[in-house]
Automatic annotation (TrEMBL):
<dbReference type="InterPro" id="IPR007138">
    <property type="entry name" value="ABM_dom"/>
</dbReference>
<comment type="similarity">
    <text>Belongs to the YciI family.</text>
</comment>
<protein>
    <recommendedName>
        <fullName>YCII-related domain-containing protein</fullName>
    </recommendedName>
</protein>
<dbReference type="Pfam" id="PF03992">
    <property type="entry name" value="ABM"/>
</dbReference>
<feature type="domain" description="ABM">
    <location>
        <begin position="113"/>
        <end position="171"/>
    </location>
</feature>
<dbReference type="InterPro" id="IPR005545">
    <property type="entry name" value="YCII"/>
</dbReference>
<dbReference type="InterPro" id="IPR011008">
    <property type="entry name" value="Dimeric_a/b-barrel"/>
</dbReference>
<dbReference type="Pfam" id="PF03795">
    <property type="entry name" value="YCII"/>
</dbReference>
<dbReference type="InterPro" id="IPR051807">
    <property type="entry name" value="Sec-metab_biosynth-assoc"/>
</dbReference>
<feature type="domain" description="YCII-related">
    <location>
        <begin position="4"/>
        <end position="87"/>
    </location>
</feature>
């Protein structure tokens, strides 16, 4: 299975015209989501001139099939569209036993963002946060998972560390203070100011 980003460029009067076709569009999108193929979908805001839909399918043709059936495309609300393979490097990996070794420390943090901002946040985490974490001695790994909550996406970040001293080298003297860069905070609608730590006491992997 591979990830694909479907990008729509909408017409200038898209907002005024979409009401007539919105329910049919959502009906199609929900059907594809129920099959597990569509992960996220939504229009960008201010201005509403583009939309992003994220698919996880075995072939690009399934995304193109969706486009051909989409009432927004059929009725001319989308003036240009593009399907691009999306290489996801954070959020789809499985935990490795080395990350969950008993005695290691799990650091948990959560936040919420708009659907349209999720790809940008994941890009920030991949390109900015992970390289910084890898430079810290005692960092063992990270997992990012997401959960749809209405029109928002909840983000869960778990990092694993060899010791509290390793965490202190990253977070500073206040171990429970969340480390959130301003550019990341700008993409979020809510985020934890404090994190939780727990000791991994038992772990099993298949």
């Amino acid at each position: 299975m591979s990830y694909y980003a479907l990008l729509y460029e909408t017409v200038d009067d898209y907002v005024a015209r979409r009401a007539e076709f919105r329910e049919m569009h959502l009906l199609l999108a929900r059907a594809v989501r129920e099959r597990g193929e569509l992960l996220l979908a939504g229009a960008f805001d201010d201005p509403v001139d583009r939309a992003l839909l994220v698919f996880r399918v075995d072939d690009k043709s399934k995304v193109e099939e969706f486009v051909r059936k989409d009432p927004y495309v059929v009725n001319g609300l989308v003036k240009k569209w593009e399907v691009r393979p999306w290489k996801v490097v954070v959020g789809n990996e499985q935990r490795s036993p080395s990350l969950m070794t008993p005695g290691a420390i799990l650091r948990r943090w959560s936040a919420r963002t708009a659907e349209a901002h999720l790809p940008k946040y994941l890009e920030h985490f991949s390109e900015r946060v992970l390289p910084e974490l890898r430079r810290v001695a005692g960092f063992l790994g990270a997992t990012v998972s997401t959960c749809q909550t209405g029109d928002q996406v909840e983000i869960f970040v778990e990092t694993t560390w060899r010791s509290l001293d390793a965490i202190r080298a990253f977070a500073g003297p206040d171990l429970e203070a969340a480390v959130v860069a301003p550019e990341a905070a700008a993409l979020l609608t809510r985020y934890d100011r404090r994190v939780q730590h727990s000791l991994i006491t038992l772990s099993e992997h298949i």
